[in-house]
Protein backbone atom coordinates (compact mmCIF):
# COMPACT_ATOMS: atom_id res chain seq x y z
CA UNK A 1 0.00 0.00 0.00
CA UNK A 2 1.22 3.50 -0.85
CA UNK A 3 2.37 5.24 2.39
CA UNK A 4 0.33 8.29 1.37
CA UNK A 5 -2.87 6.23 1.38
CA UNK A 6 -4.82 5.94 4.58
CA UNK A 7 -7.11 3.11 5.58
CA UNK A 8 -10.54 4.50 6.36
CA UNK A 9 -11.81 2.96 9.60
CA UNK A 10 -15.42 1.88 10.03
CA UNK A 11 -17.63 4.80 11.01
CA UNK A 12 -15.47 7.38 9.22
CA UNK A 13 -15.15 8.61 5.64
CA UNK A 14 -12.48 10.30 3.53
CA UNK A 15 -13.70 13.90 3.25
CA UNK A 16 -11.07 14.88 0.67
CA UNK A 17 -7.54 16.19 0.34
CA UNK A 18 -8.10 19.91 -0.24
CA UNK A 19 -8.93 22.98 1.83
CA UNK A 20 -9.20 26.62 0.80
CA UNK A 21 -7.15 29.19 2.66
CA UNK A 22 -9.17 31.87 4.46
CA UNK A 23 -9.73 35.08 2.49
CA UNK A 24 -6.75 37.41 2.76
CA UNK A 25 -4.41 34.73 4.18
CA UNK A 26 -0.73 35.60 3.74
CA UNK A 27 2.46 33.66 4.38
CA UNK A 28 3.79 32.24 6.57
CA UNK A 29 1.16 29.49 6.61
CA UNK A 30 1.31 26.80 9.30
CA UNK A 31 -0.99 23.79 9.12
CA UNK A 32 -2.01 21.42 11.92
CA UNK A 33 -3.96 18.16 11.77
CA UNK A 34 -5.30 17.14 15.17
CA UNK A 35 -2.90 19.62 16.76
CA UNK A 36 0.22 18.20 15.07
CA UNK A 37 2.08 20.58 12.79
CA UNK A 38 2.31 19.38 9.19
CA UNK A 39 5.38 19.85 7.02
CA UNK A 40 5.05 21.68 3.68
CA UNK A 41 6.25 19.57 0.77
CA UNK A 42 5.79 16.35 2.75
CA UNK A 43 2.35 16.48 4.36
CA UNK A 44 0.77 19.18 2.21
CA UNK A 45 1.41 21.57 -0.66
CA UNK A 46 0.25 25.15 -1.02
CA UNK A 47 -1.22 25.60 -4.51
CA UNK A 48 -2.41 29.15 -4.97
CA UNK A 49 -5.09 29.73 -2.33
CA UNK A 50 -5.57 26.04 -1.62
CA UNK A 51 -3.94 23.43 0.62
CA UNK A 52 -3.53 19.98 -0.93
CA UNK A 53 -2.80 17.18 1.53
CA UNK A 54 -0.74 14.06 0.86
CA UNK A 55 -3.40 11.88 2.49
CA UNK A 56 -7.17 12.08 2.75
CA UNK A 57 -8.61 13.92 5.73
CA UNK A 58 -10.95 11.62 7.66
CA UNK A 59 -14.24 12.69 9.21
CA UNK A 60 -16.68 10.82 11.43
CA UNK A 61 -20.07 9.68 10.20
CA UNK A 62 -22.69 10.64 12.77
CA UNK A 63 -26.23 9.55 12.05
CA UNK A 64 -29.33 10.71 13.90
CA UNK A 65 -29.37 7.74 16.30
CA UNK A 66 -25.72 8.11 17.26
CA UNK A 67 -26.07 11.89 17.65
CA UNK A 68 -29.07 11.43 19.96
CA UNK A 69 -27.26 8.84 22.09
CA UNK A 70 -24.26 11.19 22.47
CA UNK A 71 -26.59 14.10 23.29
CA UNK A 72 -28.28 12.04 26.00
CA UNK A 73 -24.89 11.03 27.39
CA UNK A 74 -25.38 7.34 26.74
CA UNK A 75 -21.96 7.06 25.13
CA UNK A 76 -19.29 9.12 23.46
CA UNK A 77 -17.58 8.69 20.14
CA UNK A 78 -14.17 7.26 19.39
CA UNK A 79 -14.15 7.20 15.62
CA UNK A 80 -11.48 8.84 13.47
CA UNK A 81 -12.18 12.55 12.96
CA UNK A 82 -9.37 14.80 11.70
CA UNK A 83 -9.48 18.52 12.35
CA UNK A 84 -7.39 20.86 10.22
CA UNK A 85 -6.31 24.21 11.66
CA UNK A 86 -4.47 26.88 9.68
CA UNK A 87 -2.34 29.64 11.19
CA UNK A 88 -1.66 32.55 8.85
CA UNK A 89 -1.11 36.29 8.72
CA UNK A 90 -3.66 38.85 7.57
CA UNK A 91 -2.82 42.55 7.52
CA UNK A 92 0.21 41.88 9.73
CA UNK A 93 -1.74 40.00 12.41
CA UNK A 94 -1.47 36.28 13.18
CA UNK A 95 -4.84 34.54 12.83
CA UNK A 96 -6.08 30.98 13.23
CA UNK A 97 -8.78 29.23 11.24
CA UNK A 98 -10.00 26.24 13.20
CA UNK A 99 -11.45 23.05 11.69
CA UNK A 100 -11.37 24.38 8.11
CA UNK A 101 -13.71 22.85 5.55
CA UNK A 102 -12.30 19.96 3.56
CA UNK A 103 -13.28 19.57 -0.07
CA UNK A 104 -12.87 16.75 -2.59
CA UNK A 105 -9.73 15.36 -4.17
Characterise the protein shown here.
This protein is mostly beta strands. It has a single domain, classed as Immunoglobulin-like (Sandwich), CATH 2.60.40. 8% of the residues lie in helices and 45% in strands. It has 1 helix and 7 strands, in the order E-E-E-E-E-H-E-E. The protein has one helix at residues 64-71; strands spanning 12-20, 26-33, 36-38, 44-47, 50-60, 84-90, 93-97. It has a 4-stranded antiparallel sheet with strand order 3-2-6-7, with no helix packed on it. A 3-stranded antiparallel sheet has the order 1-5-4, with no helix packed on it. A hairpin with a 2-residue loop joins strand 6 (84-90) and strand 7 (93-97). The chain is globular, with a radius of gyration of 16 Å. The two termini are 19 Å apart. The mean pLDDT is 84.
CATH architecture: Sandwich
Number of domains: 1
Number of helices: 1
Question: What is the number of strand segments?
Answer: 7
The CATH class: Mainly Beta
- The low-pLDDT segments are none
Report the mean per-residue pLDDT as an integer. 84
In sequence order, what are the helices and strands, one letter per element? EEEEEHEE
Strand content: 35-45%
**Radius of gyration of CA atoms, rounded to a whole number:** 16 Å
How would you characterize the largest beta sheet? 4 strands, antiparallel
Strand order of the largest sheet: 3-2-6-7
- Overall body shape: globular
Distance separating the two termini: 19 Å
SS class: mainly beta
CATH-defined fold name: Immunoglobulin-like
User: Which bin fits the share of residues in helices?
Assistant: under 10%
Amino acid sequence: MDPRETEVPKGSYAAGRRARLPAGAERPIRVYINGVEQMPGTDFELRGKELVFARPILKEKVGAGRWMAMYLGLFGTYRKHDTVDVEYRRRGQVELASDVEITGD
